[in-house]
Write a structure and sequence with these properties.
globular, 10 strands, about 20% strand, Rossmann fold
């Protein structure tokens, strides 16, 4: 996999963003109705939808210049009246500056969206959101370690589990771009000191994440990247089948797991 300024890309990258869009479009439509319904419960619910992109890059595919996850999310979110707060975490300062400029030039400060761009490593930054008592937050975390060294290359499952342990994020879902081949490789060196905790397959990691249900896509690319959506809401799992996401316990989901595990 090639990288530019810490942003990874390969022949599988365009399909990743197609999968991302296939989630975001129906997902925000669903949550637009939910947020509208629950506004009267503002004493326990934050009135904004919170989106966390924990490795946001500069917002573009470095090879093609096509929109990446932060820009694709904004492009869809501006269609709605609900308020969104975006927490975009990126460890390369040049990428942060490019992302700021791109958002301002492309979207002209849409009134329903607040963007906070944070320079740093998500492993250090994200736990700061777990501190203190907060209202419950409807939201989505996009975890994509593509090209970034996070927890020996594995999606930070431990970090997401810690987020689940914070009660205010029980209504926050996780969208994970997962390198299943890397998981296999790390399991293969379990006898090396420090790698003992990686002796799990994908099922093992997802049990640790702290969400009741999850679904996944067909793998793509040489590294068998798969997109995973984890939630506590069963109805969401059912609705995502039309977008190419299969419940892990369904026949198709089991076929995919047997292929990548």
């Amino acid at each position: 996999m090639a990288t530019i300024n810490g942003i990874g890309f390969s022949d599988a990258t365009p399909q990743k963003y197609e999968n991302f869009k296939s989630v975001i479009q129906p997902y925000l439509l669903i949550y637009d109705k939910i947020l509208g319904k629950h506004r009267k419960y503002s004493n326990w619910m934050d009135n904004k939808f919170h989106y966390f992109d924990i490795t946001s890059g500069n917002g573009r595919n470095p090879k093609t210049g096509d929109m990446g996850s932060p820009l694709l999310f904004i492009e869809e979110a501006i269609k709605y009246k609900n308020k969104f707060k975006l927490h975009l975490i990126e460890q390369n300062i040049e990428n942060c500056e490019s992302l700021i400029n791109d958002i301002c030039n492309t979207f002209k400060s849409p009134p329903n969206i607040e963007c906070v761009i944070i320079n740093g490593n998500s492993v250090d930054i994200l736990p700061s959101f777990f501190i203190g008592k907060k209202k419950k937050r409807f939201g989505l975390v996009f975890a994509d370690p593509n090209g970034v060294k996070l927890d020996k290359g594995i999606t930070p499952f431990d970090l997401l589990r810690d987020m689940s342990d914070c009660g205010c994020y029980s209504h926050t879902d996780y969208l994970i771009n997962c390198n299943s081949t890397q998981i296999k490789r790390n399991r293969g060196v379990k006898t090396v000191a420090g790698f003992e905790k990686y002796d799990k397959d994908l099922n093992g990691y997802m049990k640790d994440v702290g969400k009741k249900y999850w679904c996944l896509t067909e793998p793509r690319g040489n590294a068998n990247w798969t997109m995973i959506l984890a939630t506590n809401w069963w109805e969401l799992i059912k609705k995502m089948k039309s977008s190419g996401f299969y419940w892990n316990k369904s026949k198709k989901g089991q076929e995919i797991l047997n292929k990548i595990n």
